[in-house]
Amino acid sequence: MTVRRAAIECHAIETLPLVHPGDDLPALLARAIRTTGVALAPYDVVAVCQKIVSKAEGRIVDLAGITPSAFATRIAASTGKDARVVEVILRESTRIVKMADGHLICETGPGWICANAGVDESNAERLDSVTLLPHDADASAEALRVRLSAEADGAPVGVVVTDTFGRPWRDGLVDVALGVAGIGAVLDYRGATDMGGRELHHTLIAQADAIAAAAGLLMVKGAGIPAVVVRGLGWERTTGRGRDLVRPAALDLFR
Amino acid sequence: MTVRRAAIECHAIETLPLVHPGDDLPALLARAIRTTGVALAPYDVVAVCQKIVSKAEGRIVDLAGITPSAFATRIAASTGKDARVVEVILRESTRIVKMADGHLICETGPGWICANAGVDESNAERLDSVTLLPHDADASAEALRVRLSAEADGAPVGVVVTDTFGRPWRDGLVDVALGVAGIGAVLDYRGATDMGGRELHHTLIAQADAIAAAAGLLMVKGAGIPAVVVRGLGWERTTGRGRDLVRPAALDLFR
């Protein structure tokens, strides 16, 4: 299976209003794409930042209602964080990967490794609140895909819900895919050969992460761009989930 | 500092001939961009895959001339690799990060963590040979930048030399930046605030890795696309090196 792509375009969707809990994000996004002047076409992929998905889904926690545990209180003292925020981080975590220098690297969701379990104090709905990652980003992506595909007269449309993650070894953050619908998260080249006829070594390509990273070039911090339409990808495999991007621990030689 | 980008385009450069050691890659690439019909414009970034840079720089090792050490021979036996290839991998490595299941994850160059220290058996010039990573990918990028900027009448042009890496935690491979010239490898938002006036948590954005990942969507395996022009980024900071993307071990909580 070889995909050939001569060109791709990424268009920033700038006209989305501030999103509030309970908003119909698929409808808001469809309208924003229209008013930006980008008519969705077959095989467009819409990258949507996690934050607006979480807000629409009401994944906002009012810190006034949080009573920190003894452990959260102790961690807060040693990290300089708000104990209530630490409590929320612990509730979102399935595992603490590393805890040092005021930072918490956690495992959350289907196996995402990220700072603070994705709990975010910036750009929340209210000042004394934090946002969580979507409960099931693949389901969030699928709900968006259904509505956006309808917007494109039923044509195949992909959706990638993105977030900005740090990573080991390499400095700086990149946007990655949390939720995927309508497009393969991973391209599988097992069995394919190179130009010399030898089997390819690079067999699984994290396509959805590359789409997220490309969209991230437009979703620059502070620019207020929550969504990007990526055009020109084309694809053959139309199934895939964000959780396909979790590397099984037993096969992870990089960690 | 906030960059605003309404749209970016990525154009595949398809007309590059097979590259051989000693070839004038900057000139070949300038010509290929021209014949693809993409006239380089100010602030274009040209992503170039490591493989053709290495080939042009003669970073090809004839395995017939390699005598494996005792250690390489033992590792080869346990991994099922060619002992001469293991020997080359060890010569390119400053550290073995992990060794298991027939795989070698190594540290090489300025601090890249990658499989086999970047030594690649596929698509090499001759069958009984392997390619190495560029000796100094930042210098490779700078040499390309000088020629490609001249092609754009002296306008600012960025260059990113890319390679395809696996990574911890997340499955599949993505393209990352090894060498950077003319554009900041990392965007620094320290001190910037969000829409609510709070200091941003995501302070260092690995822009060059995002550019590499975006270009990687076109450099799909087997498609024979060794270079991509990325247009529409714009930038303010014109200095940066690939080695800016090495996360200092003491600050790496993700590993």
Overview of this structure, please?
2 copies of one chain form a homodimer. With 255 residues, chain A is of the alpha+beta class. The first copy, chain A, folds into 2 domains: 164 residues, CofE-like (60s Ribosomal Protein L30, Chain: A), CATH 3.30.1330; 72 residues, CofE-like domain (CofE-like fold). Chain A is 25% helix and 24% strand. The first copy, chain A, has 6 helices and 12 strands. In chain A, strands 1-12-2-8-9 form a 5-stranded mixed beta sheet. In chain A, helix 1 crosses helix 5 and helix 3 crosses helix 4. The relative contact order of chain A is 0.21. Strand 1 of chain A pairs antiparallel with strand 1 of chain B.
Please give a quick description of this structure.
With 255 residues, chain A is of the alpha+beta class. In chain A, 25% of the residues lie in helices and 24% in strands.
Question: What layout of secondary structure does this protein have?
Answer:
Two copies of one chain form a homodimer.
Chain A: E1 7-13, H1 25-35, E2 45-49, H2 50-56, E3 60-62, H3 70-79, H4 83-92, E4 93-100, E5 103-108, E6 112-115, E7 129-131, H5 137-151, E8 158-165, E9 174-181, E10 187-188, E11 204-205, H6 207-216, E12 227-231
Parallel strand pairs in A: 2-8
Antiparallel strand pairs in A: 1-12, 2-12, 3-7, 4-5, 5-6, 8-9, 10-11
